């Protein structure tokens, strides 16, 4: 099966949707707080069993996958015809969407990883010397926001892929006209 723009677009969209769904589930499964248990001069926080940390890392992994596939899809030599990157970056629309896709992917990664790592730290460092601790969890809403930005990022990669495909067609068409013009000038047509 040949690699086509449609196949790459499908992969980018699918990976982005999976990242989004997993991130939303992680946000919904996150407990509001742990239960403080008084010990001798310490408070031990007991947290309910939940898949937030695993789902957060999975969502981030799918975001990375959609970003890598999205980036790779822009510069892949479809039908064996490569196009110089300079030809793609001549299009102002492509440059704008390419940069916004990268920025959005980075922001989505930060919003997915920050609460996931924080939650993992809360679970592993559950003994507190402060007797007034309320057993916190990661900030609510960040995982969900990261999930939505992950979906946005994949959509922006799709727009950049469409713009790159247009720029690629323009470049190849322009080169074909130049080649035919040179052959006509030489009299070999």
Automatic annotation (TrEMBL):
- Highest taxon above the source species: Eukaryota
Which residue spans traverse the membrane?
7-26, 54-76, 88-114, 142-164
Q: Which UniProt keywords apply?
A: Membrane, Signal, Transmembrane, Transmembrane helix
Topology in the lipid bilayer: Multi-pass membrane protein
- Any single GO CC term annotated in Swiss-Prot or TrEMBL for this entry: endomembrane system
Q: Where in the cell is it found?
A: Endomembrane system
Give the protein family. Answer: Belongs to the DESIGUAL family.
Q: Please give the name of this protein.
A: Keratin-associated protein
Q: Please name the source species.
A: Quercus lobata
Q: Which gene encodes it?
A: LOC115972057
């Amino acid at each position: 099966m040949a690699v086509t723009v449609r196949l790459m677009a499908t992969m980018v969209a699918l990976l982005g949707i999976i990242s989004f769904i997993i991130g939303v589930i992680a946000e919904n499964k996150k407990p509001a707080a742990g239960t403080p248990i008084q010990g001798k001069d310490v408070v031990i926080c007991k947290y309910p069993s939940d898949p937030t940390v695993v789902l957060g890392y999975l969502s981030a992994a799918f975001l990375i996958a959609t970003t890598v596939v999205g980036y790779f899809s822009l510069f892949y030599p479809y039908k064996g015809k490569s196009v110089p990157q300079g030809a793609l970056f001549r299009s102002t629309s492509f440059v704008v969407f390419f940069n916004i896709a990268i920025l959005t992917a980075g922001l989505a990664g930060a919003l997915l990883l920050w609460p996931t790592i924080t939650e993992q730290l809360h679970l592993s460092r559950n003994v507190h010397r402060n007797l007034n601790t309320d057993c916190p969890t990661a900030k609510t809403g960040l995982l969900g926001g990261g999930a939505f930005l992950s979906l946005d990022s994949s959509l922006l990669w799709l727009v950049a892929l469409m713009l790159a495909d247009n720029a690629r067609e323009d470049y190849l068409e322009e080169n074909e006209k130049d080649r035919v013009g040179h052959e006509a000038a030489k009299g070999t047509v």
